[in-house]
């Protein structure tokens, strides 16, 4: 996870997830969490972006 991805995840969590994983379930979950509250979306974005190579 690069520094630019971290900064983007802090500013706009759904956009960071969208750019990394495309239009997938991870993006939709993150979008919903961000709509419900910024902090849950931020935590989710940082968590799934830190899971590099653990799943396809």
Mean pLDDT: 90
Strand percentage: under 5%
Helical amount: over 70%
Assign an overall shape.
globular
Count every helix, treating DSSP H or I runs of 4 or more residues as helices: 4
For the secondary structure, the number of strands is 0
User: What is the chain-wise order of helices and strands?
Assistant: HHHH
Distance between the termini: 16 Å
Q: What is Rg?
A: 10 Å
Stretches where pLDDT is under 50 for at least 5 consecutive residues are: none
The major sheet is characterized as: none
Quick description:
The chain is an all-alpha fold. The chain is built from 4 helices and no strands. It has helices spanning 3-11, 13-21, 25-36, 38-50.
Question: Can you characterise this structure?
Answer:
- This protein has four helices and no strands.
- The chain has helices at about 5-10, 15-20, 25-35, 40-50.
- It has a domain at about 15-50.
- The protein is an all-alpha fold.
- Helix 1 packs antiparallel against helix 4 (about 40-50).
């Amino acid at each position: 996870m690069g520094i630019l991805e971290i900064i983007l995840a802090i500013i706009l969590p759904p956009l960071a997830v969208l750019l990394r994983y495309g239009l997938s379930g991870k993006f939709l979950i993150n979008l919903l969490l961000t709509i419900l509250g910024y902090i849950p979306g931020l935590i989710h974005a940082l968590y799934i972006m830190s899971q590099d190579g653990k799943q396809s």
